[in-house]
Predict the structure.
Amino acid sequence: MKQRAKRKFRLISSVLAVLLLLSGCGPDFKEDNSQDTVTPKDDSLIVVGVSQIGSESVWRTANTASIQSTFSKENGYFLIFDNARQKQENQIKALRSFISQQVDYIVFSPIVEDGWDTVLQEAKDAGIPVILMDRNVNVKDESLYTAWVGSDFTEEGRRAGRWLSGHLAEEGRGDEEVNIVVLQGTNGSTSVIGRTKGFDSVAAQHDRWNILEQADADFTTAKGKEEMNKMLQKYEDIDVVVSQNDDMTFGALEAIQEAGMTTGTEGEIIVISFDATKSALEKVEEGIINVDIECNPEQGAYIEKVIRTMENGERADKEYFVEEKVFTKKNVDSVIDDRSY
Ligand code: GZL
Ligand code: ZN
């Protein structure tokens, strides 16, 4: 605890020094979304530096909201929040700034799995615990991070495959040729690696399932529409679209509708989506999306549990999986009204 107090004194004096220096400046100093400065008497606050990937999707926005509501001053935290705007180099810069400000904890969602060994070694050398949120890192030395909080992405992918297998059997199409296209998210991210691995593992059990193409649409609506358009030109018989997040799904639906085709429970093309955001669940309810595999963005409480465990001098687990479900027309009504995102 003493070390934290010492770090905190240095942090407050450096933050105050910077502010004194800049107090004459005009622009609002908060473009990095950081909260107001902590006043000297609040050195009981736990300082958490958070590097968020960006705001590429509805899911990401909900994930950010969960972090900001958890790490509030009322809850005993001083949050320094940085939005990396989809760039790994901005995340590395943010982590280095957290290290120089000697925060108590670093939390971040790594946009891709590779390229973190050096900066995580610097955090370890500075004695600052790192908690990974949502996505994971591929590092030689697993001690470079304390814990990871997120989804079992491979299981999410398997759930999509198992749903499709059950659905086709129900429709009496169990041994029909099925042509599948996949819209993948950000290349090299944990969510894409897991969802692809999981779905492919089920597809491998169905020799009449043809995965025609897996295109990178970077988790955005615009890229989802662009890649779906290309695939509609290329393939005259697409039976299933697997879209690895709702934002890409919205783009794909636009492209399919503009091509004069239909989707969903009564449509020509089966649509499987991931994230289960409210706006997508409304399309599940309307029968436009067949199934949505939930990916739970509300990870703030899980991350806080790790921090509180460590504050109590106990050892945190290495990984914490968040609760997730699968939504179809049959069960979507049970959650849609009180969905906060
Ligand atoms: C999943 C997360 C993904 C979401 C996308 O945990 O990494 O990133 O599925 C988001 O919506 O962009
Ligand atoms: Zn077909």
